[in-house]
Amino acid sequence: MRQGYNPQKDKAEVLSEYYHQVIIPVFLPNRDGYFKDGLQILHYCLRSLLLTIHPKTFITIVNNGSSAEVAAYLEDLRLKGEIHELVHTTNIGKINAVIKGLGGHSFELVTVADADVMFLSGWQDACYEVFRDFPKAGAVCTTPSSKSLRTHTANIWAHLLFSDRLAFRDVQDAGALNAFAHSIGNPDFYSKLHLERYLTVTSNQNEAVVGAGHFVATYRGDVFQNLSSRFSRYKLGGDSLDKILDKPVLQNGFWRLSTVRNYTFHMGNVAEDWMSIALQQIKPSGQSLAMPLLHPKKSPGVFRKVLDRLFANILNRKKTAVWLLRVKGMSASDAKNYLS
Predict the structure, then answer these.
(1) How far is CA 61 from CA 83, 115, 135, 136, in A?
(2) Which of 3, 47, 201, 202 lies at 20 to 30 Å from 129 by C-alpha?
(3) Is 3.90.550.10 the CATH classification of the domain at 20-298?
(4) From the CB of residue 74, how many other CB atoms can be counted at a distance below 10 Å?
(5) What residues does each domain of the chain span?
(6) Terminal alpha carbon distance of the chain
(7) Per-residue b/e over 24-38, b at no fewer than 16 CB within 10 Å?
(8) H/E run at residue 332
């Protein structure tokens, strides 16, 4: 039986004071083998995040089937008010955990990050500069990669192939690229050419690297409004990243870009001395940042979709992709080696 009138009925939702959400799925089922240092890595990740964000940032952690020890650690952070939202679930996979974090919210910007990301001072400011100076930016990664130039970037190539705004320029922090290669256990991930040049796009006031990685990226929140799928069959990999984090950006006519300088480190699953040192060197932010003006999203027309698909096919084939690199001034031999 129900008596009385629910005071929440027909009550309009109060607008949130936050405009930037950070979603971090956490899967640490134990402290053995691969996950031995996982809790320490998670600590570095969350402490670096808390030190570097501005007050209008809303933190959502999705406990994706972690151990009781990890759940208790996260619950303690929530009770202290250091994180705003903690979702506990069974191991449903990274993308499904991200979808859980998106549910029930509407933020102008959404950062999706792995639980092994070290955030550095100024990462939000650097992100906002890219969104501000590149109206077509839909996703911005704070760790640039020389190898991102062919991954979901066809719309950039189609728009700027014969423009001086799209050009290879000197890498500004080769050490950061080497650090990423080390973190994934592949020190030869980048060749000498990759450490020297990456493909960038310029605006009147700024420069960004073409392409964006997945381990940490900030998205326009509106790209997630009409997702074609709200579920992934894959716990990790498969087409899950493509459907949820890549295609929505392209379908709304936006570009995937990265900052030219490095503002985040991928730590991997092994704790190393440099991590605690880097954490100690972070200067607390606490400074409010103005929300960058985001231009209204506009789905590309039929002609633009056809052109983008054509360039996607060109980029997917090494022989034709070499031709694109040569158009941008690279020698034939360097172009072949760059795509190896």
Answers:
(1) 8, 9, 29, 29
(2) 47
(3) yes
(4) 24
(5) 20-298
(6) 69
(7) bbbbbeeeeeebebb
(8) helix 332-338
